[in-house]
Design goal:
The chain contains twelve helices and 17 strands. By secondary structure, the protein is α/β, with parallel strands linked by helices. The two termini are 32 Å apart. InterPro entries: AcOrn/SuccOrn_fam, Aminotrans_3, Aminotrans_3_PPA_site, Class-III_PLP-dep_AT, PyrdxlP-dep_Trfase, PyrdxlP-dep_Trfase_major, PyrdxlP-dep_Trfase_small. It catalyses: N(2)-acetyl-L-ornithine + 2-oxoglutarate = N-acetyl-L-glutamate 5-semialdehyde + L-glutamate.
Length: 388
């Protein structure tokens, strides 16, 4: 089958695919329609946390499919309760709302922040401050919260009430907190923006400033969360406590899911009818999340993620390749800053059996499954070395 021809015939032209069709996963590798095997450093853009074919995940999903696929939230859902309890205990926040994606979770977080402010202060205090080079999703409010103008073209008019400041610039943030702002929204590591970890001093100062002014802190952990950075949450690297946290991607192990976590200030803000989702909390997706949470929070698992991230950094830096300017990130969320074009390296790696991502024209992004082995890392990077 000519996959490209069929795709172009039936699908909108929104994606620039690499020229292979993946049909099977084994462990931390993927296999294409021609039978070629690839070491995966993408995990479906940070989604397949446990790789492919994890027995615990397969059994949980198969058992749940045999029992029940969907009921909606007009009934109690034991699987959602199971996953929700595990997530709250792992996060140390107070309440959860389950959605279907990161964009949905971020839209809900914006609503939650604005309602908190409206309930307490009334109108005129609904602005969201986010950071330049951020990415928060492709639905309208989440897209407007995204601090990259290139994503805003063509889709006007946007919802009002969004402003941007440079990352790591506390003075710029102070200028915006003028009594019209309800929340500051940030990623611990800007993924789509180039894999840039925020400075610890900026994050701590920003959170302290927000607490002083009763401005909520929202951490978008859609890409950073659920163990990806070598901590359960990316913000844990800064030892701060946000008011709202969003999750998606790796939480479901491959199934569509999103989550909004609320802290002490925001746990009681939403009342019946304020927010909802037909598919959110779907039993199959939540069974996936429940299994992922069991594995990721098991003893030593996240420590191993951190170690594997350091191994990747050390190996790449040890290559001393002139074309590599910098390796940055935390855990298994890493960006390689290049002298040349990241797309060129990605295509060379693909031809040699290594799957990678890009994060802009000059950054190669690595988001392997959290279960990738040291042997697979070493083998994959030896091949990748030839592609720079």
């Amino acid at each position: 089958m000519d996959f490209k021809e069929k795709w172009n015939e039936f699908f909108m032209d929104t994606y620039g695919q690499l020229p292979i069709a993946l049909v099977k996963g084994e462990g931390n590798c993927l296999i294409d329609s021609e039978g070629k095997k690839y070491i995966d450093f993408t995990s479906g853009i940070g989604v397949s946390s446990l790789g492919y074919g994890n027995e615990q995940l397969k059994k949980g999903l198969k058992d749940q499919i045999d029992l029940l696929l969907h009921t909606s939230n007009i009934f109690f859902n034991p699987v959602a309760i199971e996953a929700g309890e595990k997530l709250i205990k792992a996060s140390k926040l107070k309440k959860v709302f389950f959605a279907n994606s990161g964009a949905e979770a971020n839209e809900g977080a914006i609503k939650l922040a604005r309602k908190y402010s409206f309930d307490k202060y009334g109108e005129g205090r609904g602005k969201i401050v986010s950071l330049k080079q951020s990415f928060h999703g492709r639905t309208l409010a989440a897209l407007k919260a995204t601090g990259q103008e290139k994503f805003h073209n063509y889709f006007f008019p946007f919802p009002e009430g969004f402003v941007y400041v440079e990352k790591n610039n506390i003075e710029a943030l102070k200028e915006q907190l003028d009594g019209t702002v309800c929340a500051v929204m940030m990623e611990a590591i800007q993924g789509e923006g180039g894999v840039y970890p925020l400075d610890e001093s900026f994050v701590k100062d920003a959170v302290a400033l927000c607490k002083e002014k009763d401005v909520l802190v929202i951490f978008d952990e859609v890409q950073c969360g659920v163990g990806r950075t070598g901590k359960f949450f990316g913000f844990e690297h800064f030892n701060v406590e946000p008011d709202i946290v969003t999750l998606a991607k790796g939480l479901g192990g491959g199934l569509p899911i999103g989550a909004i976590l609320a802290g002490e200030k925001t746990a009681g803000v939403f009342k019946k009818g304020d927010h909802g989702s037909t598919f959110g909390g779907n039993p199959v997706a939540l069974k996936g999340a429940s299994v992922v949470l069991d594995v990721v929070t098991s003893e030593g698992f996240i420590d191993e993620v951190a170690k594997k991230g350091e191994l990747i950094k050390n190996i790449i830096e040890g290559f001393n390749i002139p074309a590599v300017k910098e390796v940055r990130g935390k855990g298994l969320m890493l960006g390689i800053e290049l002298e040349g074009e990241s797309k060129d390296v990605q295509e060379k790696a693909l031809a040699k059996g290594i799957l990678t991502l890009t994060a802009g024209a000059k950054v190669l992004r690595l988001l392997p499954p959290l279960t990738i082995t040291e042997e697979e890392i070493k083998a994959g990077l030896e091949v990748l070395k030839e592609c720079f």
